[in-house]
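Attaching the record inline, Q. Sequence:
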Amino acid sequence: MNLLERNHDQQTLAAALDAAMMGRGRVALVSGEAGIGKTSFVEHVIATWSHGVRVLRGNCDALFTPTPLGPLYDIARQTGGRLSAQLEGTAPRAALFSTLLDDLRAGERPTLLLIEDLHWADDATLDLVKFLSRRLAQTRILLLLTYRDDEVEAQPALRGLLGDLATSAIAVRIALSRLTVDAVRVLIAGRPVDAQTLHRQTSGNPFFVAEVLGNTAGGIPRTVRDAVLARVATLGPAGRDVLEAAAVIGGRIEARVLARVVAGDGLADGIRAGLLEPAGDGVAFRHELVREAVLADLDPARRRALNRLALATLQALGVRRGDLAQLAQYADGAGDADSVRVYGLAAAGAAAGVGAHREAAAQYARVLRHAGDRPAAERAQLFEACADECVIVDELAQSEFARRQAIDLWHAAGDRVKEGENRAALAWPLVRSGRNAAADATSREAIAVLEAMPPTRQLAAAYRIQAHLRMLDRDCPAGITLGRKAIALAATFGDDATIAAAENVVGSAMLVSGDKRGRVYLERSLALAHAGGLDDLVALAYTNLGSCYGELYRFADAERHLEAGIAYTGERDLDYSHHYMSAWLALTRLYQGRWSEASDIATALLERPSVATISCIMALVALGRVRARRGDPGVTAVFDEALALASPTGTLQRLAPTHAARAEAAWLAGDHARAVTEAGAVYDLAIRHRHRWHAGEFAYWQWLGGAPVTAPAWGAPAFRLQIRGDWRRAASLWQRMGCPYEQARALADGDTEAQLAALDIFTQLGAGPAAAALRQRLRGEGVRRIPRGPRPATRQNPFGLTAREMQILGCLADGLSNGQIGARLHVSPKTVDHHVSSVLAKLGVATRGEATRLAREQNLLPQDRETAAAKWGGAPDVRGGGAA
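Structure, as predicted:
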């Protein structure tokens, strides 16, 4: 097939390669539907423009449970050296990533790293891409990625990565389009086929067109599968045997494996028929669609037999670490339960070892499907392991199911210690789902079971879990007492993991209740976890440090720990902690006045699947407060969802932020009575727990709404000062804490000079409702010369549009629907809807057409849409005096 209608795309990719060769690294994303010709396109560009460039290749596996870091094994075979040795050893993922980057930078020649079929990538590979993309700007490296854009929606982790890359300055996007009728006419080349009919039935898909034109039986098959199978039917028995064996073996078909699985000389027939092609030291299908068609047509008994042969062959050739997932799949396909257990468990351990916890959980689930006849204790251990992996990646329903299975099995086996251990661990998926009462109940049941026997390390762990639940409920004295009890008992067993976890609980309970000595416990917990290689506890330490400081309005400290923790968990696939810290980072950005960042972080998190309820609550609070403060639409829906999730928890930790946000929104909407109601909903609970900040804020909103309230003397000083009328000291405190909106709110209670200063801050932040209310008050007080809106000198972008919003505006000008915008930017329609609403609100227009007209009048739309964000950038961050 000729490479038709790809000239512009070729030039774009060639320009990216040129930039990389000049030391300006690039990430090139080549997308298109299955059969669009992604591989042909990149191979043509490589052959044409990559002279003098080192080319490295990696492929993602089309496996039910892919090999973690599969492309890295391909790359290591080409580079050898330290990377290859680390992969066969037990090097942590961070070391593997760093070694690869060193290898890519090494040498005198620029490097082109091609990773194909990213839609099949495991989570660890996606993290590798993210790691590299953030470090390529000053290198001579082009990272070239191909993926099926029609499979992105079903792969949320990939969608998130592509959404991140969509705003990267070094990313180049090439979406390959279908062929036109004219191109199809060229390909027909005199055959007795009608171009219009062929184009209509194939939709211009190059692979489909090629298969139809290669169909010697004549006519146009109904589907591409029919076309492929018609070509397969022309092969002799030997050729079909090779094709079927190759389809079972998979995407990477080594010649030595294929030769042992199937005898005969049919390989040449498959190549001549255009179904297979040479690839490195083996062969590959000309297109994955060919393999899929052959597999779908394969007799089940024949498939099992070929899986048995592939399994035996790979075993005989020597098992490598990178083959474990493939071996587990062969064993599964062969129905070989013993081999599934051997290789599935090994694959799960290898996956967890490089932080690919989602793949580890899938391997344990595979083993469990073949373990029905195993002893109860063995199955219980498998369910335990599966539950542990699922809870790490926020698959909470699956974790709960697996943990309950383990409890029942241990109970049936009469092992009360293990039963108690698992009852205690069941609290984690429950509390993270917002089911605090159920978590507390199972925790107390576990303690009752374990206390009925001599002391064990499991009892120490159960005390620690109950202490953690008390701390989360902000029953801090009980949490501290139980935590210290857990530390003392765990020390008698030398259980450093439980000691580290309990130190974390005690420190968090002390810190969140205002005792600064809690930091000592938390930092000791962090050191113990690091020393023991306890990644989940390291993540928990960062999580609690960041969220505790955030709850205390110490946002500079919160930001520091949250950013460090997010980086740490992002490199290790620790989704739960990563999600929760991201939610708290959104809240931190909110208070720092960095509202667009807060909104983007919260929205991206809420778009992800399998996010714990408590992370969703905090993200919804951040998103809702941004919308309320900016006057964006959709406030009520967001806060109603937050309340629906928070109410079942019954805890101050979730209810207080939700009701405080709802009180503020009501006040900004002019509904003072509802603001008082919301502020009073859990005020007594805040008083009972003596929470300085929650009690202080609830008292403030009730006072502001005109309700009689006496703020507690121990409440947060900034709120107490405002209630007392000392706006000057309150504003100074808010400024030192780095909270510009709260500072402006205090200044708005002052004299005219202070009010004008508040108006300036509100205007810079884009706080439309607060600014409008303050202008009205100033007019009522007879103040003249009131600033009307943002001064151009204060903003790089005159309307305060972020880089992402500039992209959205460009899409609106192109006449794209929300669905089309989402496809272009790799975000969901819900995310697009939020961004469009924000753009319309900032521009002060009601329709998309008005937005486009205003954008053209203000010269916001340079001809080259790619440079729009670079020209205007985003709105500046407005931060208070002590913000980091």
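Residues 400 and 709 are 44 Å apart (CA to CA). The longest strand covers residues 141-148.

More tomorrow.
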